[in-house]
Amino acid sequence: MGDIVINSAVRSNLQTLQSTASLMAQTQNRLATGLKVSSALDNPQSYFTAAGLNARAADLGALQDSMSLGVQTLKAADEGIKSIQKLINQARSVANQALQAKATATTLDKTAEAAAIAGSAGARTVTFQIGTASAVSVVFATATYATAASSAAAIESQLAGLVSAGGTLAGLTVTRTGDSLSFSVASGENLTIGGDAAASGAAGFGIATSGTQGQNGETLAEARATFARDYNNLRTQIDQLATDASFNGINLLNGNSLLVKFNESGTSNLNIEGVTFDAAGLGVTETTFADIDADIALLDAATKTLRTQASTFGANLSVVQNRQDFTKNMINVLEGGAGALTLADTNVEAANLLALQTRQSLAQTSLSLANQAEQAVLQLIR
């Protein structure tokens, strides 16, 4: 090509066409890729700055996924707390039913021979006890008891000091029917009646230890045993539910903790400490309902613990969700910054392409005109 001589007008038009073709290729590439900087050759500073911004955005995107898992883990724990609270409420209902169980009448009978025994010779000491509280002893004289003067109300006054585990006995009823006295309580606690062994058989009062009292005591115990089984079954359900409240292998109600990272280096994070919220962890122990008030107190304490922990998890959830939103916005900022450095404005590039196409057309026309002079020489030769 070096031996071929091209006049200056043609050469100038060829250079213009080559330049225009190069710019058109660049513009078409920008329109096709959407990037004005697609490699380090285009603009090294913009390219590597944008690459760094996109890399950080990708790292934050991975952290955002981790935060999403943290949110779901906290929600799983919250659902577990709500369900455990329902079981606690059911257990409290069972305890209240046991507390309201009625102690049926326990009868102290006067034998037929008692009518003939008078004075202190027929005196009988009888003890009354509620549950495991202190017993109260009352001396009944057969002669006095045989008269109407010894009314049920007078006997009740002698038992005024009788107390239950929860305090002074309420609901004590003394009923006199002929030669029998019946004692009943509505507190749901065991009423135990004992007698003076030395006077047994000689005095005029007999205690139906194998009769009415024994049967009534067993009936109350059986009722409470049934309630206790229901209560303890609910306690087992609390254990199982706490074990099942896991998400993605992490159970915040079974002693696991969760570390949620908020930045790439991990220097910004939230350590969510787990708890052990099985029945033992909540302080809900197995029961025989020997002291129902104490069992209810344990349930109340468990409810308070659950509510406190629910508040703590709620605060943690708010923090993670806030950082999740912040991270999402930061990713948008980083990607926007990278885009400002590398993305092409398609409107501008489309206008550029149109202008280049016009320039190319004009250059081709100009080249044709420049060649006409040499074509004229060719006509002379012919």
Please describe what this structure looks like.
The protein has 382 residues and is of the alpha+beta class. It has helices at 8-33, 44-99, 142-145, 152-158, 212-244, 292-342, 346-381, and strands spanning 103-110, 124-130, 136-140, 163-164, 167-168, 173-177, 180-185, 191-195, 205-207, 258-261, 269-272. Helix 2 packs antiparallel against helix 6. The protein is rod-shaped and about 160 Å long. The two termini are 26 Å apart. Residues 103-121 and 197-218 have low confidence and may be disordered.
Q: Could you list some keywords that capture this structure?
A:
three-stranded antiparallel β-sheet; alpha+beta; four-stranded antiparallel β-sheet; about 375 residues
